[in-house]
Amino acid sequence: MLRSRHRRPNKQLPYHMFDRARFGLEAQDARTLERIYHKGQERSWDGQAVLRALVERHGQPRVAPALRPALARLFAVIMWGELAAWKVSAALAEELEPFPAKLAATSQAHDEARHFFVMHDYLELLGAMPDRLDRPIERLLSAVMNADHLAKKLIGMQLMVEPVALSVFHVVRALDVEPVLTGLMPYYQRDEARHVALGLKYLPAMIRQMSTRERVALMRFQFRLLTLELWGSVGLMRDYKALGIDLRVAVEVARAKQRKALELLIAEMGIRSTLPIELLDRYSSAMTEALLPADDVTLRERLRGFARTAAWGKQPIDEALADEITTPAA
Ligand SMILES: [Fe+2]
Ligand SMILES: [Fe+2]
Fold this sequence. Notes:
By secondary structure, the chain is mostly helical. 74% of the residues lie in helices and 0% in strands. The protein has a single domain (25-322), classed as Ferritin (Up-down Bundle), CATH 1.20.1260. It contains 13 helices and no strands. The structure holds fe (ii) ion (2 copies). One fe (ii) ion binds at residues 82, 85, 112, 115, 192.
């Protein structure tokens, strides 16, 4: 019965939506989820006005023709990723039953729609409208959109894809490729950090109600997403290089944010063991050594790096890279 509640959209009126105990939601977490909606409303920004003001201040966005294809390919990931986030959050808004979680997801869908159209309008102004995505990234996004369980959609989008998007915003902002884009990034970052909070506050209750089989499937799903993310990064290597971004730095930023999000999740669940996170982190770090080597590294050194990281893990992650990933106060 539990399984079907999280797997299939329930088209009946959920009269029990206020019954926190039924969903295993603590009073404090319910309040925080509700606040995500109200904060979203308070801090909502006018996408058209913000873009217009930035263009007035800095002029029509322009980048050197040589950089345009790379920027278009990188931001294709962001634009289509925003659409995927919009679709997933709209599905969550419909399918999540507890009232506070439904509110938070609805507010997220509103934000993601804005992120999508602003990025679309910006890329159009730049003359860099993106085309199709590379296969691994397309598969990553559709794996999350078509996940057969709400927990997979939540963990996939809020805690695995959002932190990667935040890391792209982080490096692009720091690099200052184009002033209008740099000016847009803080608006995106501010909203995305709130979206991570939906995952942190509702997933623990959901996972606690799942069977062991479902939990194992969730873990396998995370490994699959990590693999697709890494192959996706391989496809973007050339573009990162063209833009002057060190891909290994970008991957490290994403790793720090993703790890922090997952650490906060298990802390929320009251789990002391960091083993599941250690396994995921070791896996992605070892794969990074193999797939995304530093420049001038021989195949032999690459394999050695892979084996060493798989056996001993990789340290340290700079905690400051994941500053905006925090548990929202109740
Ligand atoms: Fe977004
Ligand atoms: Fe988001």
